[in-house]
Structure to design on (282 residues):
């Protein structure tokens, strides 16, 4: 395993295949939770589903016990942006917007992904915001793939692509200070990947990099604050938020979206590596 400045962990293709296996476990857990989301379901119910899927696959929840975090998922509803703790008292209601962040460790390697889903009948502007966040994430992934392929890409090209996609879509707040990260034998590694910024800065995008790209946007202000539980981050102005995430890896022949069932081919086409996945579907 090679390393470069900022202590960025560069993976071999064989190690990336192991990360793909972990990513598919996370994808399966998120798929099961998506199917279960409905009015009357609690966030604790969703947490139990995620833990069951992960452990049945031979994995371990990444989040549980991480710096004392007590659950398998982060289940952030409405004005909660990230890191909200599941609870049997938090019952999903018709019209809610929930962001679920989930991670798993398999054979020592991490997968990390997040989705935002509407509960029942949801206001169109909320669904649009979730779609904007998703499109911005894919814009960032595409920038990473093209930057690595050209040999000229820099880390903040991802940040700039995410920001540009959000700004073109409307008036949304891009949450300040939070962003994506490197991932591998630890859930959070160098580098930090902001969701805004000028392009052409930071380390080069090279094969072997594995990154979690995760836009967080709001219907209002980009300002946030942490609640007294020491985990839950909410919008300061009470506006609704959306959070999505995929873990990706850069290889010599393209990108691999490790936590997408199809490896990203449906959105990125030929930018996706031709390597055969360690299990191509969930």
């Amino acid at each position: 395993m090679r390393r470069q400045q900022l202590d960025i962990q560069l993976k071999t293709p064989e190690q990336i295949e192991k990360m793909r296996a972990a990513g598919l476990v996370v994808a399966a857990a998120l798929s099961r939770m998506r199917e279960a989301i409905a009015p009357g379901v609690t966030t604790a119910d969703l947490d139990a589903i995620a833990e069951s899927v992960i452990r049945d696959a031979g994995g371990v929840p990444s989040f549980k016990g991480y710096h004392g975090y007590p659950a398998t998922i982060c289940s952030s509803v409405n004005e909660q942006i990230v890191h909200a703790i599941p609870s049997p008292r938090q019952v999903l209601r018709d019209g809610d917007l929930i962001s679920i962040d989930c991670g798993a460790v398999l054979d020592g390697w991490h997968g990390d992904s997040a989705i935002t889903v509407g509960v029942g009948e949801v206001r169109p502007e909320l669904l649009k915001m979730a779609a904007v966040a998703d499109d911005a994430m894919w814009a960032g992934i595409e920038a990473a793939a093209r930057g690595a392929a050209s040999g000229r890409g820099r880390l903040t090209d991802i940040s700039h692509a995410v920001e540009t996609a959000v700004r073109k879509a409307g008036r949304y707040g891009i949450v300040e200070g939070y962003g994506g990260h490197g991932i591998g034998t630890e859930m959070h590694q160098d580098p930090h990947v902001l969701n805004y910024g000028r392009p052409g800065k930071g380390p080069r995008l090279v094969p072997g990099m594995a990154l979690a790209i995760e836009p967080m946007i709001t219907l209002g202000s980009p300002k946030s604050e942490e609640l007294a539980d020491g985990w839950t981050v909410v919008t300061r102005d009470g506006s609704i938020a959306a959070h999505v995430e995929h873990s990706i890896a850069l290889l010599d022949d393209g990108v691999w979206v490790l936590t997408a069932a199809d490896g990203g081919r449906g959105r990125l086409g030929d930018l996706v590596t031709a390597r055969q996945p360690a299990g191509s579907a969930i």
Remarks:
- The chain has one domain: 13-271.
- The longest strand covers residues 97-106.
- The chain has five helices and 17 strands.
- The first helix runs from residue 13 to 36.
